[in-house]
Amino acid sequence: MKILLPTAALSFLIACQPNQPKSVLDAQNRIPLELKVRHFIESHPEWSTNEVVEASVDKIFVDSVRMWSKRADFLENLPLNAEEVQKVDDNGKTVYLVTFKTFNDPERAEPSVLNKINVRLLGDVTEAQMKKIKTGAHYTIDAKLKKILSLQGGGLLIDEYELGAYRFKVTDFRKLE
Q1: Euclidean distance between CA atoms 55 and 79, whole angstroms
Q2: pLDDT of residue 83
Q3: What is the distance between the alpha carbons of residues 160 and 65, in angstroms, rounded to a whole number?
Q4: Residue at 141 is within a domain
Q5: Do residues 172 and 142 lie in contact, with contact meaning Cβ atoms separated by under 8 Å?
Q6: 1 belongs to a structural domain
Q7: Stretch 118-144: mean pLDDT
C-alpha cells in the first residue's frame, strides 16, 4: 500500500499534463512575450465578439503591450529576423541600425502564438555588431528600450497580434541556427 499510493499520485499528475510534446511546452516557457500574449488572449475570449467590444479590448491590449515593452524581459528569447542593416547619418553623427521583425516559422510547434505576433524593432548597434549581423538571419537580442515608435493598431488583426514598433539599444545578440 505504501508504494501504491505514491505511484497512483504520480500517474494522476502525469495524466493531468497538457497533451503537448515537451518541446512545445519548453519553448512556450522560454519566451515571456509569448506567454503574456497567450495569457491576454485566454483572459479576453470576448475580444472578437463585435466591433465595440473589439475596440475596447484593443485599447486594453495596447496599454498592456506598452507596459510589457518597458520590462526587461520584453525581448527575452524572442526570435527575430534581421531585415535590414544600415549606416545612417543622425544629425552629423554616424549611427548603425538594424531592423528586426518577428517572423512566421513553419517549423514552430503549434499552438505557438509566435507565428501570429508582429513586432518591429529598430536596433541601435555598434559598428562591430553591425558587421556581424546578416540580413535574413535569425537572432535573439538583449536590448534596452529607447522609444516606442508606434502602438496604434494594436490588438487583434485578422488573427494576428500587432505589438507595435520600437527603438532599442542592442547590448548583445545571438544567432539562431
Answers
A1: 29
A2: 97
A3: 14
A4: yes
A5: yes
A6: no
A7: 95
pLDDT band at 47 (very low <50, low <70, confident <90, very high): confident
Beta bridge partners of 101: 81, 120
What string of DSSP letters covers 21-83? -HHHHHHHHH-HHHHHHHHHHHH-TTTTS-HHHHHHHHHHHHHHHHHHHTSTTTTTT--EEEE
Q: Tell me the C-alpha distance between 115 and 14, whole Å.
A: 29
What residues make up the domain containing 80?
A: 21-175
**2 within some domain:** no
Q: How many domains does the chain have?
A: 1
- Give the global pTM: 0.78
166 membership: H or E segment, kind and range: strand 160-175
